[in-house]
Every structure is written in C-alpha cells, then in structure tokens.
Amino acid sequence: xxxxxxxxxxxxxxxxxxxxxxxxxxxxxxxxxxxxxxxxxxxxxxxxxxxxxxxxxxxxxxxxxxxxxxxxxxxxxxxxxxxxxxxxxxxxxxxxxxxxxxxxxxxxxxxxxxxxxxxxxxxxxxxxxxxxxxxxxxxxxxxxxxxxxxxxxxxxxxxxxxxxxxxxxxxxxxxxxxxxxxxxxxxxxxxxxxxxxxxxxxxxxxxxxxxxxxxxxxxxxxxxxxxxxxxxxxxxxxxxxxxxxxxxxxxxxxxxxxxxxxxxxxxxxxxxxxxxxxxxxxxxxxxxxxxxxxxxxxxxxxxxxxxxxxxxxxxxxxxxxxxxxxxxxxxxxxxxxxxxxxxxxxxxxxxxxxx
Length: 355
What we know:
By secondary structure, the chain is α/β, with parallel strands linked by helices. The protein has helices at residues 19-26, 46-51, 63-69, 90-101, 118-127, 169-182, 194-198, 212-230, 252-256, 287-297, 313-327, 334-337, 343-354, and strands spanning 3-8, 31-37, 59-60, 76-79, 105-108, 131-133, 156-162, 187-191, 203-204, 234-238, 262-267, 301-306, 331-332. The chain has two domains: 3-133, Rossmann fold, CATH 3.40.50.720; 142-354, P-loop containing nucleotide triphosphate hydrolases (Rossmann fold, 3-Layer(aba) Sandwich), CATH 3.40.50. Helix content is 36%, strand content 17%. Helix 4 (90-101) runs parallel beside helix 5 (118-127). The longest helix is centred in the middle third of the chain and has 19 residues, at 212-230. It is globular. The two termini are 39 Å apart.
C-alpha cells in the first residue's frame, strides 16, 4: 500500500529547486501525496501550479493548516526541494521540527542528512519516528563491482541522457516507461536519483551517493537484477548531469557500463551555459555535436526530447521541426505533446531484436 505523505517546499514550489516535489506531483507509486506545504502558493491545486493540470493535490500554507484541514492524516513529511550542494534550506529547518512534533516521519533526498542534525534525530527517536535519508550511501558489503554480467541482459536498454543537469531526464524516463507499458510492452525505469526512488521505481541506485569505484557495478547490477526479476522488453535508464558538465560530468557509465543499445537525448535550446555555472566559460554544445560524442562512446541517438524552459511552445516546436529535418530522428516535447511518437521507434527496435 502507498503511504500517505505531505511534501514541504518552503516557498520554492514554482522554482526549479522544487523538482523533487514536481516529480511527486506528477506521480508516485510509493506515496499517496495528500498535500503540498508552500506558503507562496497556498489555496491552489499543486498540479495546476505545476503545469496547468488539476490533480486534486491541495497546497497548504503550513503543516498546521494541513493537520487542521485535511480529513486524512499523513504518515510522512517529504522534503520536496533539491538545493545546490544538497543543503537543507533554513526555511525548512523549523518545518521539520514541526513535522516531527506532529508525529510525521521524515523522508529526505538531500545530501544534508536529517539524521545528522542532533536535535531532529533526538526528537524523532523520542517519538519513535523514522528518518529516511534516501541519499545515505550503501554499506560496502551491499555494493557491487562491475563484472560483465550486463551481457546476460537481453532487454533493450535506452539511456536517457541530457546536455545538462536539471533538464527533466527523470520525468522523460518515466513518461517513456508509461507510454511503452500503455502500448502493450513490458517496460521498466532504472532510477539513478532520489526522486526516482520516491516515485516508486523498483530498480536502480543513487548515482551521486555511490563510491566512484562502484558506480559502474551498481549501474550494471540494477539493470541485471531488473532483467532477472521481470524480463522487460525495454528499460529506460535515467540519466544524470551530462557528459561535458564540468561540475559533474556523467553519462559514459550509462553507455559503456550499462551497455546501452541507444540514447534519448534531452536538451533545452534556450540554455546556453550549464545550470548555475553562468560565471564559468563553458558552453553547452550543439545537439549534433553531443550526438557525435555519444556515438563515439558506442551508442546511437534515436530521439531528442525538448525541455522548453524559457521558450514559447511555438518556438520549441519550430526548433524541434528544424532539428528533426536536420538530424533525421524524432524530436518531441514531452510535457507539451507527450512521447507517443517515440513508441514506434522502440517497437521497431524490439521487433528487430526478437527477430
């Protein structure tokens, strides 16, 4: 059963910093989201605030308002923001105390562990409540070293990569998984971040909390275990950061260690420099240039998905049309138009594999 939960965003709901909350609003099989706590957007529906789609998730100004107004109690309070450096914002510290005082266990996806904050940990222990720090590293004995068993996996493997971080790779991975399942295929998403776990993906690991020596092995094991248990037709492996982001280059493991058969590349045409690094003289490459690099690593790019931030829908569709003609592969807008156009691409790849 899903556990009832609220999500606190501390006034950040309408910003990119609340991408964890945004993912949970769009859907989760792990939690039943009863409300969002955000004083800036109180009184509205969270789905309408996020993307104009009513989802019957009310926004409350405070935890106290939720407790007094909701007819259904919550068990968990989820931190719904992802901050630079993974630090718990000051705006949420008092809210976490209030949550614990009202018998709500804490789910935290930040690098700044709630269990390391002595007053919070003591209060949780006193009340017999859980603190789930999703990003806490696994113990050494539970980690896997890469050993080549990835070659046992016969499912089609698609790496959902991007030209930068915070572009919506997880959301696109989830959309693609849902679209393939709806089309009658067996599809699974391999999560690599904390929000993917919170949304209920069964297979994966937390990439940026894994010791470097074991990243390739954890990647391989998650894909291998999924194949052993489910034998899906296709897996979508959620990407992190980008191949050339200097603050956290990532992507080679998806292609090389997970032996990806192909790549879906997420891109925002309006973003010229890496997120939060506008001061640094590094520029996001053109899509064709990135595709060429991905090919060198060993995988073809079979589709492009467009993040339309700071663009109008018409501008984004025009860019998509021109790029599709230039590159000869589908270019779609996941949030605005869905990803159904890519289903035929994957279906044909599966047919050829099974022929």
